[in-house]
Here is the input.
Amino acid sequence: MKKLHIIATGGTIACVPSPNGLVPGLGAKELLEYVPGGHKIEYTDLFHMDSSNIQPEEWQQMAKAVIKARESCSGIVITHGTDTMAYTASMLSFMLRDIDIPVVLTGSQYPIVRPDSDGRKNLHNAIIAASELTGGVYIAFGDAVIKGCRAVKTRTTSLNAFESINYPYIGAVANGGFISFVRPEPRKEFSCFIDIDPRVALIKLIPGTSPAFLESVASCGIKGVVVEAFGLGGVHNFRRDHAMSLKKLIDEDIPVVLTSQCLYEASSPDIYEVSHTLRDSGVISAADMTTEAAVTKLMWVLGHTHDMDKVRQMMARDYCGEINPDRVM
Ligand code: ASP
Here is the structure.
């Protein structure tokens, strides 16, 4: 039996009612009372936060808490709000690259104190997954176990809130047991890097987005931009010239990563005439990465280097299963 450690950070799973709405109030010890055998598990109460307030500083604290807990356990469960869990799971996948123990994030759509809450099952399933999985960062939610850097929250209230995007589900928990859907990958050496540069912006284009708005990020101290373009990577090149604005950012040494507003399948700026100038201007394709992975990877890469060529190379490389290099065109 593996020795596990729970790191509690808040989220709906830990919420109790307050006059102003639900607020995270329970710590790990109280959460574990809802799980069979939970009292034997060691824990850390890191935060009591709604995940809407989780930011790069909290990611760093979570990574440090994982490193500390890893000294005395062989599997970690992090309880976390669902709203930004996919960002945290992606960032921890980069910060704790090739970690040799499983780090499984979970939470719930309804507070664990409610008799009909999904929190009890989710926490139990995450504990089972952390007992069975090999190293890596994962989300266990509902019955599904998803690679952390491939998870996206796709539903606001349903119990199957997360999907695995452009990557097979890692497994499922059913009848108290873990069923693996993939072969464990060969393990590489664990490396930890938490000095990220969070000065990254995400811009979702809409019909009519002003070029001046795109260019304005430079004056806000932004050092890297992820652009959610239309479909395969389309932008305006008529009346309003997005490609020209993005080129201006690149000329100011601000890398621009192009991703799609479509959730599934890869983006590529190489297919349509509307985006053909993007490639020449040096835009980096996010290929099949989720937006959450693209944003957190860019912060992590910019923590290593601001050299445009190196940023480009690192964004195209696969570090933890976040990108299929064959889809990088
Ligand atoms: N607002 C909550 C949070 O993200 C939602 C949840 O946990 O489901 O912390």
In short: The longest helix spans residues 56-70. The radius of gyration is 20 Å. The mean pLDDT is 96.
